[in-house]
């Protein structure tokens, strides 16, 4: 196909993916009670599972009660006329993207699959399943780990007793949304490394060489998306470092398979 024909193909893939997101967003818009009262405002409840687990762990290892949350020291409010409606709309779109993510990945795969080998196209189901699984694990990690840690620290932080923590609903939802989506995309690291290795931009040697630098980047990233305390940063950094090591293994397997195919092709030509 010509360049313009490829663009036309891409346009239709993007249109279908967008329609899927809008359908998911419509479902989320209708299910307002579940999305807001149960999910979004869940981390605002002192009985949220993460707070209970942190409290139980601190008691089990003999720490003080600082990890136990007895009250939520902040309130939410809407200070603009369209604040709540805007929050409802953008939250529905975000939820629609999360719901439709497997189909979005499917459309992405359909676009790039013509440039792959037959045996690689046969792995479409596995690719979609693994990508979706990693993304949903990341979303859950962001929701149950990053979000409550951030809210717990920032919600109780005060420069002075004179200043009350009364957060705008847009700010609260924006932080939850950023934590969840950022974590979901970070957990796609093995998939990204797979494609970068396929096109020759990354090798296992490169990943091993810059492992220490990657550790620094991960710690900086953890500091950005979590509150500035060491415990929270370590909790977030550990799974990312594990994903990095998995990515090295994946890159090694890709290179090994490529060399095997090249050797087989060379042997066939020599015959």
TrEMBL record:
Q: Which residues cross the membrane?
A: 12-35, 87-106, 127-146, 172-197, 209-226, 232-251
Q: InterPro entries in the record, alphabetically?
A: TatC
Q: May I have one GO cellular component term?
A: TAT protein transport complex
The domain of life is Bacteria
Q: Which compartments is it annotated to reside in?
A: Cell membrane; Membrane
Q: Which GO terms describe its molecular function?
A: proton motive force dependent protein transmembrane transporter activity
Does the keyword Membrane belong to this entry? yes
Question: Which keywords accompany this UniProt record?
Answer: Cell membrane, Membrane, Protein transport, Translocation, Transmembrane, Transmembrane helix, Transport
- Keyword Repressor listed: no
Membrane topology, as annotated, equals: Multi-pass membrane protein
Q: Which GO terms describe its biological process?
A: intracellular protein transmembrane transport; protein transport by the Tat complex
NCBIfam families for the chain: tatC (TIGR00945)
Main function: Part of the twin-arginine translocation (Tat) system that transports large folded proteins containing a characteristic twin-arginine motif in their signal peptide across membranes.
Concerning its family, UniProt says:
Belongs to the TatC family.
Quaternary assembly: Forms a complex with TatA.
Q: Spell out the protein name for this chain.
A: Sec-independent protein translocase protein TatC
């Amino acid at each position: 196909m010509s360049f313009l024909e490829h663009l036309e193909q891409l346009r239709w893939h993007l249109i279908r993916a967008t329609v899927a997101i809008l359908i998911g967003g419509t479902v989320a818009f209708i299910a307002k009670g579940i999305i807001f009262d149960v999910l979004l405002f869940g981390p605002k409840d002192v009985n949220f599972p993460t707070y209970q687990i942190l409290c139980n762990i601190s008691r089990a290892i003999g720490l003080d009660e600082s990890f136990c949350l007895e009250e939520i020291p902040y309130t939410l409010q809407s200070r603009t006329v369209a604040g709540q409606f805007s929050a409802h709309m953008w939250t529905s779109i975000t939820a629609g993207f999360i719901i439709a993510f497997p189909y979005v990945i499917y459309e992405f795969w359909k676009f790039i699959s013509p440039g792959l080998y037959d045996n690689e196209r046969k792995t479409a189901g596995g690719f979609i399943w693994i990508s979706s699984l990693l993304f949903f694990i990341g979303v859950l990690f962001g929701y149950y780990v990053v979000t409550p840690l951030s809210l717990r620290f920032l919600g109780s932080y005060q420069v002075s007793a004179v200043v009350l923590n009364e957060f705008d609903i847009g700010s609260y939802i924006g932080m939850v949304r950023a934590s969840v989506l950022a974590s979901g995309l970070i957990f796609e690291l093995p998939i990204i490394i797979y494609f970068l290795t396929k096109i020759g931009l990354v090798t296992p040697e490169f990943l091993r060489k810059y492992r220490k630098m990657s550790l620094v980047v991960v710690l900086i990233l953890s500091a950005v998306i979590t509150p500035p305390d060491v415990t929270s940063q370590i909790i977030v950094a550990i799974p990312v470092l594990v994903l990095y090591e998995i990515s090295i293994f994946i890159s090694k397997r890709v290179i090994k398979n490529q060399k095997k195919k090249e050797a087989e092709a060379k042997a066939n030509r020599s015959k």
